[in-house]
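Subject: for your reference before the review

Hello V.,

The reviewers asked for a structural picture of the protein, and I figured it would be easier to keep everything in one thread rather than splitting it across files. Below is the amino acid sequence we used in the manuscript, unchanged from the supplementary table.
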Amino acid sequence: MPNVREPGARESATRSAAQPRPGTPRPGTHGGLAGAREKLRAAATTEPGRLWLIGTVVAVLVVAFGAVTAWEVSDRSAAAGDVVSRSQPLSADAASIYRSLADADTAAASGFLAGGQEPLDVRKRYDTDIATASRLLVKAASNTTGSAESAQQIATLNEQLPLYNGLVEQARANNRQGFPVGGAYLRFANQKMSTSLLPAAQKLYEAETGRLYDDYDQADTWPYASTVLGLVALAGLVWVQRRNYLRTNRVFNHGLLAATAASTVVLLWLVVGHAVAASDLSTSRAHGQESLKVLNDARISSLQARANENLTLVARGAVLTPEGKDLYEAEFTKEMASLSARLGAARSLADDDAGKAPVAKAVGDMEEWQKRHTAARRTDDSGDYDGALTQVLGAKGSTGECFDQVDEELDSAIAHEQPLRMPRLALITVWDRKSGSSRAASAPRPNPTKSRTVPTRNSQVVAALAVEERLGPPCWVRSAAAASRRADLRDPTACRTEPVP
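And here is what came back from the structure prediction:
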């Protein structure tokens, strides 16, 4: 009897055979990572899949190149903008604070030597220096952020400046009345200036100059990451197009060709543009900032030399070195040697006649200053104190005349270097702004005017007469002979009450 199946048995057997065995995974039911690997493996087995994979990798490289390039260009543009708008002005202000304090100390000693009636121009110069230092300290405190060292030095200057000013006022008051103790107050003020104010101003200047050089280095750093990514992206694009040509005989692919052209242009712009900007930054640093630093240091040395020259006549041998030499005369010699070395460095850094001329004149006036100082010391050592005073403070033929000429010539050289060099940085930051930064376009340029300005009606001397500190017992118990001898002046904090023989 034939084997006859019931209706529908055949279809049921077919469905049973199509069902997978228990434990066998269904197609497409792999885990996420395993499924992705399976898809990539399947895509790599066909030419369209391989093209899709290669295109994805190349697209990622091109996008990464563009993103890293934008980030590095923006970072260096911001650093170049900080050089112009923040670091360089703060460094210049710190140098101006130091100069103002040193010049104030010089003016105080000059006014004291002039006698009870201090010349109006000397007093005005002192007041201007104190007001300038106070104003710049306020500005530095508001603009210096994130620097603990700068904040500490600014606090020290704000604390010590009123005390120094009060000591100078005490010296003036006693000098007007003919009391020799005024010289002791002036020496004590100079000691505070030399041991507290000027070192703090020097540290502030070094801190801000260090930040300036850090910004220079950051702006000048080569964009290695974007350069490497650009080269890799270009190599990948060229390889893909060559592969397509060999396999498909297709000469050009519009998308790949456009990506190659764009990447080439961006890479060339990055390399050439950064090379030009780095060259200009290096030039401005070598012939602008370095020259400014040397000129500022030279001017500070001249101011300190002048202050020590005046204090030599004020103390008249009362303060000696451990070797038994006059302290202020030794300090004058040291500062003049420093001034000579710095003027030589400034002349070598100047790269045009307008920059070399004032430095050359300053060198000649410095040499004349040394000759006149030697003559004044010879006069004082021979016992003619009034004659030496005239040779130091006189209007004509004095060391003061040489000092004023040196100071004016250095001021002229600084004014020449500032507007000539630093705007070149502004041009660099405007060029960099086209690559992604808009900060530096409005960066203010340094003021080329002279730093010594006449104060306005509202300019006030900081705490002119406010001194909270007690200076010690009054030095009024002295013999008449001691009162007439300036060589016997003593520190007001260590005053004796018994008559001095």
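For the response letter, the relevant points are probably these. The radius of gyration is 38 Å. The chain has 13 helices and no strands.

Happy to draft the paragraph if you're swamped.

O.
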